[in-house]
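User: I'll paste a sequence; please echo it back and then give the predicted structure.

Assistant: Echoing your sequence first, then the prediction.
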Amino acid sequence: MTKKTKPKKKLLDSNQSKTKSFDSESSFSSADELKRLSVLFGERRYEEAVKLAEELTARYPHQVMGWKAKGLALQLMGRNREALTPTETAAELAPDDAQVHNNLGAIYRELGKIS
């Protein structure tokens, strides 16, 4: 007698979000936008990076990269209070992203929320 088993749920890999899957046409930032963000960070043009990140978060609110970039750019400009919300949003969207949690911890430390 053979026992019937339920199919196992597919586990998400580290590149997938728990909130939404992303296809390249409808909800994922274009490669050009991500490359532009990288250039802006490399050139320390953080104000411009914040503006681009805000565009990304408006168009792709369930995609972590815009939130992560906005929080990091604000953090690098010393605007930790402003960086808190986008970084917390990034942590919610990507709970396994160690870099986001590291950034969040640094913001908390700077704001005196942890010692």
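Helices lie at 31-42, 46-59, 64-76, 80-93, 98-110. The first helix runs from residue 31 to 42.
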